[in-house]
């Protein structure tokens, strides 16, 4: 069996609402989730499917070009030589030395498609291929965009009424406002609902200690990446100085980063993303390292359709320490490109697909429709800048500061 062809298709699926990240001033798609679908076809008729996200604010065609750029390295290869093929691609493109995350993001759809083929060859869902079936469904949390405290409290109540048990929102703006938001959400949801907040590296070590102490009375589940990911020593010092658990994110986006976090005792849990670094193989290694260290893990999102979501669900099922609520915006999609349309939430849970490979298949009519939607409604629209107050700007640590 050899790989005979690799194809890409850009799709855009409308979202329920546009979401503004706390640190990125822009997003692509004008209210739609843009992704590049990757199909890997073998000479005996099998097709593996994957999904590459649009690389930050770039046009989706950039992602396609990066996938197409390695096509000649893939054609003729045995898809079961997955790890050899991945390392060959990394060597030929310089990723082995440069560690280019944008390239890794683009190639993640190819990585997923190859894993999908592995499962289909053996007729098993990926979590069985990876050796475990720890769960048949996986939990996710609710994400609330920053707003006035009362509005955030009202939305938190709505999420809890829908069955979600972990509320997540961004911090790292004005400390007093961050604490006011935290207090309002905690009062709204009560003591039994978890609240996880994400600073996106916004704080200096001293500020992190002070602000986390201010938040401690509201019982955070985790503070995500409070300080610079590059300063693991200070991250570990902050963890030792506060009583609130710390979740690594930007610090654990690579296998080497995850190892450094564990070696320095810099976090109480790791957040992984199989689109960075070494794909699903890297995420699997990191999950196992964390398991050995006795730490839980969760997965990160930048918005995925059903193809990438199904693959992540396979990862959750395969490793025992995915015991926390994971990140997703899947509930924000109006439809999907997979057969049957959207996977449905049962409260905060999505079921782990049980079909071979990643467990889902593309719906040709939906793919055609949303490829057309991209061409008609999104292509050429460019990147839509989110609105910011005129008296603020973002510094290089993602912290809103007054204009000088």
Walk me through this protein's architecture.
The structure is a single chain. The protein is α/β, with parallel strands linked by helices and 404 residues long. The protein folds into two domains: 137 residues, Enolase-like, domain 1, CATH 3.30.390.10; 224 residues, Alpha-Beta Barrel (TIM Barrel). The chain is built from 14 helices and 16 strands. The strands form five sheets. It has a seven-stranded parallel β-sheet. Helix 9 links the parallel strand 8 and strand 9. Helix 1 packs across helix 5, helix 9 runs parallel beside helix 10 and helix 11 packs parallel to helix 12. It is globular.
CATH superfamily of the largest domain: Enolase-like C-terminal domain
What percent of residues adopt helix (DSSP H or I)? 25-40%
- Indicate the CATH architecture of the largest domain: Alpha-Beta Barrel
CATH domain class of the largest domain: Alpha Beta
Task: Tell me about the largest β-sheet.
Answer: 7 strands, parallel
In the CATH scheme, what's the topology name of the largest domain?
A: TIM Barrel
Shape: globular
Number of helices: 14
Low-confidence stretches: 23-28, 383-404
Secondary-structure element series: EEEEHHHHHHEEHEHEHEHEHEHEHEHEEE
Question: How many individual domains?
Answer: 2
Mean pLDDT: 89
* Approximate strand percentage: 15-25%
Count of DSSP strands: 16
């Amino acid at each position: 069996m050899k790989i005979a062809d690799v194809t890409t298709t850009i799709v855009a699926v409308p979202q329920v609402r546009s979401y503004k990240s706390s640190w990125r001033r822009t997003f692509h798609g004008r209210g739609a989730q843009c992704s590049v679908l990757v199909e890997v076809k073998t000479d005996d008729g099998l097709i593996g499917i994957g999904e590459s996200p649009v690389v930050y604010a770039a046009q989706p065609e950039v992602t396609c070009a990066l996938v197409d750029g390695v096509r000649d390295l893939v054609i003729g290869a045995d898809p079961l030589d997955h790890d050899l093929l991945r390392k060959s691609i990394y060597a030929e493109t310089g990723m082995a030395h440069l560690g280019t995350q944008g390239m890794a993001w683009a190639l993640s759809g190819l990585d997923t498609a190859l894993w999908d083929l592995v499962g289909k060859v053996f007729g098993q869902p990926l979590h069985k291929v990876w050796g475990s079936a720890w769960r048949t469904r996986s939990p996710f949390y609710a994400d609330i965009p920053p707003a006035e405290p009362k509005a955030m409290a009202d939305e938190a109540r709505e999420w809890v009424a829908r069955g979600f048990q972990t509320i997540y929102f961004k911090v790292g703006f004005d400390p007093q406002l961050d604490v006011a938001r935290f207090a309002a959400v905690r009062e709204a949801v009560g003591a039994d609902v978890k609240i996880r907040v994400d600073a996106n590296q916004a704080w200096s070590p001293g500020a992190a200690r002070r602000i986390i102490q201010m938040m401690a009375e509201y019982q955070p589940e985790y503070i995500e990446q409070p300080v610079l990911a590059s300063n693991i020593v200070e991250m570990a010092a902050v963890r030792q100085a506060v009583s609130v658990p710390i979740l690594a994110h930007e610090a654990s986006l690579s296998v080497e980063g995850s190892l450094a976090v564990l070696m320095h005792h810099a976090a109480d849990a790791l957040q992984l993303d199989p689109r960075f670094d070494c794909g699903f193989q890297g995420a699997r290694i990191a999950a196992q390292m964390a398991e050995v260290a006795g730490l839980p893990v969760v997965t990160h999102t930048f918005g995925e359709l059903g193809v990438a979501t199904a693959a992540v669900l396979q990862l959750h099922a395969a490793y025992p320490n995915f015991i926390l609520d994971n990140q997703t915006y899947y509930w924000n999609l109006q439809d999907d490109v997979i057969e049957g349309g959207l996977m449905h939430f049962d409260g905060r849970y999505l079921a782990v697909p049980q079909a071979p490979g990643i467990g889902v298949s593309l719906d040709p009519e939906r793919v055609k429709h949303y490829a057309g939607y991209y061409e008609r409604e999104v292509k050429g629209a460019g990147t839509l800048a989110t609105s910011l107050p005129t008296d603020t700007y973002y510094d290089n640590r993602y912290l809103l500061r007054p204009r000088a």
